[in-house]
Amino acid sequence: MDTRTAPYAALVLRLALGLMFVAHGLTKWLVFTPAGTAHYFASLGLPGFLGYIAMAAEIAGGLAILLGVAARQTAALLVPLLAGATLFGHAANGWAFASPGGGWEYPAFLTAAAIALALLGDGAFALKPIGRRVA
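-> structure tokens emitted (135 positions)
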């Protein structure tokens, strides 16, 4: 591994993943509405209140990741949310995310990206890194 560029690679990953979480959380809040999100979760057979938790976790977690505040720990904590989206929200729709209802390729990739960030670290320009830093 190139320890000179690894912190910048983690930064790129952190910014992309954090922005994705914030965008998805805000979409649930502003477009689908909290009540609509809860209804969607219930339609999947999940407790509706999990929709509110997912929305809050995506916005707060995404902001923490973007800013580099315990980003690797936050990414690890959000892996179950992404895995749940993959299994409950998209698995039945096939592989391709372009499929009706969105397939599971995108949330599965995001799960892998969150795991990679958790393993790699906060990266460059993190406001509050916790744990071991890469060079």
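The chain has one domain: 5-120.
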